[in-house]
Amino acid sequence: MVDRLVNSEANARRIQMVESCFGSSGEQLLIPGRVLVGEGVLTKMCRKRPKPRQFFLFNDILVYGNIVIGKKKYNKQHIIPLEEVQLQGLEDTPHTRNGWLIRTTAKSFAVYAATSTEKQEWMAHINKCIEDLLRKSGKKRSDQHAAVWVPDSEANVCMCCKKTQFTMIIRRHHCRNCGAVVCGPCSPKKFLLPSSTKPQRVCLDCYDALSSINNQQNKTNANSSAQMKATNSADDSDGSDGDEEEQDANKTHDEVSRLICRLFTCLFTK
Questions:
Q1: Rounded distance, CA 239 to CA 226, Å?
Q2: Which of 92, 167, 189, 232 has its CA at 20 to 30 Å from residue 159's CA atom?
């Protein structure tokens, strides 16, 4: 179905309509080979509270934005390359139903559909687009994803020290490695995470764990380098012994040649 729509006028019109709804604040979406697979409203779990967002699934990207006027105007466009996406279903709770996680290298979050059927259809279509995209590009699924942040409303006290209560003055912070809500004293340090290009705020527990892993990797790399140097030194030593043996052999050969010459000289003299 997607292949049949690639160069169709209907697909081009639908994508142009999405572009016009975002206006000048959005990026150009109509490019060769791109197909609009589906669209709909999903509830996105934001930091403060759940909010409705308009989502557009293309065969290579997932786009979402704030709803200003339903089906007419959106803003704050976000574009996620599908090759970075990994989905994970969520169990229903007394407060949330029909949800799943959208994990990416830069940001991960939970979304919720209106019905179980809608959830299954969204997840099936997204996974199908990801599989087709990876198969055509020959790339592998990313194994590095950002942590899903715990919503502020689910943490009245620091999830690290279990003591500090959050108030209007004592702010909440999020650990970029585990997503926990923590206080300032429990997250004073930063660490360079695989999913980021610069050091990010992390809680003390994650900092200690990440530092331990990093130190262990450095020790392993240092031991490997030392072993390689020792092996190279041994090879050089073996090569030197070989050169000395060759020099001794040449010296012996020269001495034998001189003795033979002397013998012939004596014979002819006599």
A1: 20
A2: 92
The pair of three-digit structure tokens given for residue 190, joined into one six-digit string = 């930063």
Residue spans of beta strands (DSSP E) within the chain = 36-45, 50-58, 61-69, 73-81, 86-89, 99-103, 109-112, 173-174, 181-182, 189-191, 200-202
**Helices and strands of the chain, counted as H and E runs:** 4, 11
The structure's pTM equals 0.76
Q: Is the dihedral of CA 146, 79, 9, 123 positive or negative?
A: positive
Q: Are 151 and 166 in contact (CB under 8 A)?
A: no
**Sheet containing strand 86-89, strands side by side:** 73-81, 61-69, 50-58, 36-45, 109-112, 99-103, 86-89
pLDDT digits 0-9 by tens, 145-179: 899 999 999 999 999 999 999 999 999 999 999 99
At 139, which amino acid appears?
Answer: K
| Residue partners of 106: CB distance under 8 A and separation at least 6 | 84, 146, 195
